[in-house]
Design a protein that fits this description.
- The chain has helices at residues 2-26, 28-34, 40-49, 51-69, 73-92, 97-121, 127-148, 155-166, 172-195, 217-230, 238-268, 274-283, 287-303, 305-313.
- It is an all-alpha fold.
- The termini are far apart.
């Protein structure tokens, strides 16, 4: 009976994944939505029946999706099916949300690197150089349109955009890492909405106010600051490229730490959570707000601000 149930649900999940893949490939408007639920069939099936049955459904889904959506399905299947499978294994083994995030991130990042290498070696297309070229063409087109309409063109602003666009190939590793982490995070957040309907176990992340980096992370951040200052004039060097890809990750992590302090403060003071949200999301576009939030993160790791806030409340 159990074997029959595995086969039946496996066939259903395979069919569902294939349909979602075909819709994502052939119906771009719906694909924007469907692409985010692509990992769910493999994720749910693996949680219910384990890694080996999940691997079988993954293999069959790959073949069926290729037959339906042709070679266009390869990146989707490799990225989202494998990502859902890995997250499903982690949950099946009862690992925490953050351990699962780590496993899922590694899976997505590895697959993105694999797709990048395949694009360069097999198709002779460098994805990030193509992205750079497309964005440069867009800036040039915008400049031409403004000029034709007799609108004033801010050359200094355009030059800044072009400089930033020119850095895209150099920060390709950073883009892939951030994309992999983002995909893994969204996979868990979206899957939680479905998993909570048929299981009593909690798959959600703890509240942001409870997030905390280990204290030794502060030394990595300080080392990153020193290294970034040391290579600021050495653009184009290997060390500059390494720092350019690693230091933004450290800064992002410190912003998350600072945000946790803000949410802890409003929670302990019974203030609406809308306040830190209104400060963070629009405000993080401003450099001064970013600096303020990062300083909060540094102080929290070094001085344990969140526990001090708790103590003051008591």
């Amino acid at each position: 009976m159990n074997q029959s149930r595995k086969l039946t649900e496996g066939a259903v999940m395979t069919a569902l994944f294939a349909v979602l893949t075909a819709a994502t490939v052939y119906i771009p408007v719906l694909g924007i939505i469907f692409v985010w639920i692509l990992p769910l069939p493999l994720l749910i099936y693996t949680i219910r029946f384990g890694p080996k049955p999940g691997a079988m459904v993954l293999a069959v889904s790959f073949v069926v999706s290729l037959l339906i959506a042709s070679a266009f399905a390869i990146p989707l299947v490799l990225l989202f099916a494998v990502g859902g499978y890995v997250v499903g294994i982690s949950y099946y083994r009862k690992r925490s949300a953050f351990q699962t995030l780590y496993a899922g991130s590694i899976s997505y990042i590895f697959t993105l690197v694999l797709l990048f290498v395949g694009s360069v070696v097999i198709l002779d297309i460098h994805p990030f150089e193509a992205l750079q070229s497309g964005m440069e063409d867009s800036v040039d087109s915008a400049e031409q349109v403004l000029t034709s309409l007799d609108q004033e063109v801010d050359e200094e602003q355009l030059d800044m955009y072009r400089d930033n666009i020119g850095q895209i190939p150099q920060v390709a590793p950073l883009i892939m890492v951030m994309t992999g982490i983002g995909y893994a995070f969204l996979t868990q957040v979206i899957s939680h909405q479905f998993l909570r309907r048929f299981t009593s176990r909690a798959y959600r992340f703890p509240p942001l106010r409870e997030w905390s980096l280990p204290r030794f992370f502060l030394w990595f951040y300080l080392a990153g600051i020193i290294m970034s200052l040391a290579v600021i004039e050495d653009q184009g060097t290997t060390m500059h490229m390494i720092v350019s890809n690693i230091f933004p990750l450290l800064e992002f992590a410190m912003i998350i730490q600072g945000a946790s302090v803000m949410f802890q403060f409003v929670y302990m003071r019974n203030i609406t959570r809308a306040l830190p949200i209104l400060i963070l999301f629009p405000g993080l576009m401003l450099p001064l707000v970013q600096v303020f939030v990062r300083i909060l993160g540094i102080l929290d790791i070094g001085l344990d601000l969140k526990n001090r806030i708790k103590s003051e409340k008591k």
